[in-house]
Fold:
Amino acid sequence: MMVAVPAMAAAQGGITREQGITREQVDRRYNVRVFENVLVSAAQHGAELLGLRVSQIDPGIILLAGTAPRAQGFVIDGHGLFFAVEIPAVDPVVAWAVRTRGRDEMADRAIAALRQYLRREQDPQMRAALEGQLRRLEQRVTPPGGGMQQTANGTAGPTLSPPLMDDPNLEYERMVTEQLIDAMLDHSHQLGLGPDDSLTIAARGSHGPLLSQAAFDDSVTLMLRIRERDLAEFRAGRITRDEVRARVSVREF
Structure:
């Protein structure tokens, strides 16, 4: 009578059922998968930080769109390890609205400063002329009912505005970059990199299937690269965190 032998029984002496794959290679694959999850968490944290920043401007704004973060690692002979990271992208339409809102609020603040200066003008004719120009400017840049409010003494003053975001894409890029670099410094020690190897991360925003081919998709690929010898010096305490961060090559295209 024939007896079926479980596939796991084929793993003998450190060899898995994939003929020729060693225990060391299996462990490295596992560590690569662990680092993929670390990068996903880092990208998620960057998105959370951006969400917190945006909520200070308007809790109703949803700036990010697309898929949840994903990462996949590859071993490249003669180079080291390469990880492709896909992150939620900044919605271009919402980003435009945020930038426009920021410009409007800066205009309101500039108008308020001009009004303060105008009150010190002593020449009645000059003051009347400047007030007319300022009113026309307000009509062009301030929506009805917005921009100015009455203070306790009856004079016009600027409304309290939330912090501005001049460029949501740059803010997001900075936050994600910081989190990915921290992941490289703190969680790459088990990747099995050789002293001449490099760790490279390519991160790109994804709008999802509906917007992936849109003409206004201005997503860039962020490339982060550091040599294992620099990471080893940092782990050994021979260079500081700021010094090793400065050795990370950051490029975009």
